[in-house]
Every structure is written in structure tokens, then in C-alpha cells.
């Protein structure tokens, strides 16, 4: 009995450690992007830190690389305001996504983190009702809206060779609201995301993010995926409740969902109370390594 309690305490500490690491990574990248944006503005007015004066929000955004693909292939140039660095970052993010899925969305993207932090307030207000208030049918339809947004962004950018989406981008508005470069439409989009985040977790990620739409397609063939071991699953559905993207992990063998962001909240390292049951892994579970359910809870 004492050994069981020790194991439970050890797993609880491990879960907290994983959560802390993810939070630290999110805060780190949020601070880096905020610093780059502020320093770029200060540099233009004669201040800032000279050694990183050329860094800008466009230079460190892999989305710029994505929307520049056509322009670069056609004439060998990048879309105005984008940089070679954003193209390189796009390749790095794509390579990472092939291996572990859209970890960029779940761990690195500062705007995704921003929405999660607002969700903390939403949970305080609505409790268990938070992130479940939208009718399932409407929610399932809206989730494909981001592919329409992605198609529109790629098309208009290819036609105009300019970053038109910046005029509607809440991410750009969040990190440039002081600069005078943000269009009114972007401010409206940001305000809408903030309000919706009080009711729905990561609304922009779910329904409108063009980059998330592209990365989500990698969930169909990523090397390491989220897998549920039905043999040890106790059907508690805690994995479902913990998923910010409302994915039904409890009924899946392997999570093949275009909305998965590889945040790992559903796994045995965090939400799942049974070890080695919901994991980020390749291949299939080996039956000969499984133990009795009761010994794992």
C-alpha cells in the first residue's frame, strides 16, 4: 500500500514538472517575441538594442515564409516585409511538425499561449461549462473555417505580393498595438479573440488561424502521435476534459485529428491517471508490456 502511495506521489510530481516546463517554454517565447517587437519600435526612434536592431516581428514569424512560397518560387523574391529568416523558420517548424505534430502551436506560438492565459479567467467564471457552451454541430463546422482563411491568405498574398493578412491579424495587433502600424480591422479581430477566449479555449487557433490549418494537416502522417492504450484505459474521460481543442481522445486508438496541437495535456504525463495509457509515441502498444489496470492507478 505504501508503495502505491509513493508511486502516485511520484507521478503527481512528474505531471506538475511537465506542466511547468511547458508553461516556462510558453512564457519564454512570449517574452522573446514581445522584446523583439518593442525593440524594433525603439530602434526606429533612435533607441533599442543595436545588436538586435534588424530583428522584427515579420523576421521571426514562420507565417511569412509560408505566404512567400509562391512569390519565391515564381520570381525568387520574398513577399514585402518578410525576410529569409521567416522562410528558414518555416522549414524548421515544418520539420518539427512532421516528427511530433503541431508542437509549435501548443508550446511556442505566443498568441496561442495568450489565449490559454485568458482561458484561466474563463474557467474561473464558468467552471465546468467553460469551453463546452458552443453547440457541437456548429463547432464542428466552424473548425473548417480556418482552411478557408488559409486559402484566402495564400491567394491574396500571391496576387498582391504584400502581407495583406497583417491588416486582419490579431497576433500582429497584440505585439504592435503601440506602433501606429496596426489597422483597425486587426484591433477588432484581437478584441473579438479576447472576448471569445473567455468562453472558448483557443478560438483563433480552432476557427481562424491559417498557419494552424496548414500545420494541422501534419497530424495525418506525423511520426510521433498521441496514442491511447485501450487495454489500460479506465474510461474516466479526463483526457477529453483536459484537451483545449475538444478532441475525443477517450474513444481513439491513435489521435488523428487536424486540430491536435501536441500540447500533451491529455497524456499520462498530465491528465490521464493511468501510466503508459495516453502517450506521445510511434508504432503501437505492445501487449506483453502491459500491467493490470489496478496496479497503474
Structure description:
- The structure is a single chain.
- Helix 1 (2-44) crosses helix 6 and helix 8 packs across helix 12 (210-216).
- It is built from 13 helices and two strands; from the N terminus they run H-H-H-H-H-H-H-H-H-H-H-H-E-H-E.
- The protein has a two-stranded antiparallel ribbon with strand order 1-2.
- It is mostly helical.
- The chain folds into two domains: 13-219, no CATH class; 225-280, Alpha-Beta Plaits (2-Layer Sandwich), CATH 3.30.70.20.
- Helix content is 52%, strand content 3%.
- It has helices at 2-44, 62-67, 69-75, 84-100, 103-108, 110-126, 136-142, 145-160, 170-174, 184-196, 203-207, 210-216, 238-242, and strands spanning 225-228, 278-281.
- It is globular.
